[in-house]
Amino acid sequence: MQSSASEEQAVSSVMPTPGNSVYKTMISKAPFLKPLLSPAEEFDLLAQRFEVLLSHNFGGSMLGRDIQDLTRVERVSKVGEALGGKALNTLRKRVGQCSHFVDWCLSVGTLAFPVNSQLILEYTDPAGQRVLQIGEVVRFLHFVLGVDLNGQALGSPIFLGRLRKARLERPARKQARPLTVKEVVALETMLRDTGADLLDRYCAGMFLVAVYGRARLGDLKEIEGFFLDLSSEPRASTHGYGEFNSLSHKSRSRGNAVGMRMPIVFPAKGLGTGLWLTTLLAVSVEMGHPLDKLEAGSALMRTPNLDGSLSTRPLRHDRFVEWASRILTRCGCEDSSTITGHSAKSTLLSWMSKFGGSYDERTLLGHHALPGRQSLATYSRDLQASPLRSLETMLDAVRSLRFNPDNTRSGMIELRDPEADDE
Q1: Bridge partners, 298 (sequence order)
Q2: 211 close to 242: Cβ distance less than 8 angstroms
Q3: Is the dihedral of CA 165, 168, 170, 171 positive or negative?
Q4: 3-state secondary structure of 336
Q5: Could you read off the pLDDT of 52-73 as tens digits, one per residue?
Q6: Distance CA 217, CA 343 (A)
Q7: Cβ contacts of residue 40 below 8 Å, gap of 6+?
Q8: Angstrom distance (rounded) from CA 150 to CA 311
Q9: How many Cα atoms are found within 13 Å in the side-chain-facing hemisphere of 235?
Q10: 3-state secondary structure 216-227
Q11: Which residue has the higher pLDDT, 345 or 225?
């Protein structure tokens, strides 16, 4: 490990100065003033909307024919069963797409169900509009809600030609940018600042969990077993780790189905002075939601109430990102409005790539399966041990100014004189 003096120098060179409460500007926004629905309540509302879509022609779907003679409450309940296991974000997206398709069909005087190829051709014009999403819509309607398909609804040569053309002309995907060193240190600074708003400190700490855990924000929506594994040896090569199991990770349909959980492990030592993780634990205790005492299935980052307390509902990704972005702006970080939810996960993976981390290390740190290996290996915490040590080596190089991932390729690595460091 490098000397503490080197760490202090690295931190002070990018140290921002937090301003007043960001939380107060966020809580006044309209989305925070709306009544909060629990996930179960929102799921029920989505089930009601899908029941309305089916009701325009119950005879055009297997599910519709099964429920058409039931009461509305019973129909909604059965639709909810059919939607079981689908994420709320997926259902929000699909209900909008399906509603648009059904509304269009009714506007031209035809029923949307059963779906046929001629209907698809008329809905997707030659210019390619809607052609990329209609496949997702039809497959969802058919495989989830049992909507009938007449023949090969998506097999028309004309539709397939339009689809190929639309895919070839699709705009380049805009990748999420990683956070800069200054932005990561700014979040740690906000977390440590006892004069800052407690909720802002908590938000900064939760975003750091995603950054150092190389996690999607969705991985924090439902967790179990948050605990610390700190080193008691002063000369140990690591300061320790924090860990929890994500129950809401992207591959949960495969892992959870066989009883496996996605372990999210992250170093307790970041770029700043001290251990950011122990500071976060203290902040969580002060908030009344100690992380090491959370019940299984709880959310790490929760939606704040108007009185400044935390609800039990997970904070939506877009609001989480906006909140973190405003904190960074208040701390003097420029261009922080361009971060996205995936910026947290991509940050350390990008730095590791620039530092020279191997492909296998970065794959395991990103919670992905290695080529040729069983995907369930992703759920083994033991496989992360060696990559985590490499990750800490990279973070130590950043702290001691030997590596700056924000520089161009020619200036990322600084060759230092070991004798000079000893002095």
Answers
A1: 223
A2: no
A3: negative
A4: helix
A5: 999 999 999 999 999 999 999 9
A6: 10
A7: none
A8: 47
A9: 0
A10: CHHHHCCEEEEE
A11: 345
